[in-house]
């Protein structure tokens, strides 16, 4: 059975449709979205609806987590929701929230020796002991070992990962497609006018489609 791993969709429902088609996806083939299904793009509800109806698997991204916290009333008092998040609150339906709420922070797929996570993790620490903040937001590890959510906070975290699992992750549109020995970063900035990218097993091939347009300015985000 094929498994398609897909980078940060961010509400780009048309591009998700196009990418599934580009991959030759057939119902029944496994799809794993690496998080940030919603926010910033035009049709977050459409993306979650497709994920539900097509039976796609996914891991939780930082934006999925953020809107869920607001939906569940856990927001900090006095904080205001950004428009791109308010739009998600205004458009998702109950079943969509239930889908997001059920998303795990990471997903192991032992049958293909792979692992999906949105942000990253600290190599050498078991997954269940990782901080949620890192699973959702990690981007870099400095030379002294300090983890950072910043792109300029050191080397990409995944460059330190020695396997054995192949890790598929997202959350780093600035670095774009990352190809490390045992980890691939799939966020190629579709919502910023880049591309939506998939990595497919067992064939070991990347597929991508262009964004229909720039939905958000990367530097304004
Ligand atoms: Mn993210």
TrEMBL record:
Highest taxon above the source species: Bacteria
A Pfam family assignment: Metallophos
UniProt xrefs under InterPro entries: Ap4A_hydrolase (IPR050126), Calcineurin-like_PHP (IPR004843), Metallo-depent_PP-like (IPR029052)
Domain called Calcineurin-like phosphoesterase: residue spans: 1-171
Protein name per the record: Metallophosphoesterase
Gene source species: Hyalangium rubrum
Lineage: Bacteria, Pseudomonadati, Myxococcota, Myxococcia, Myxococcales
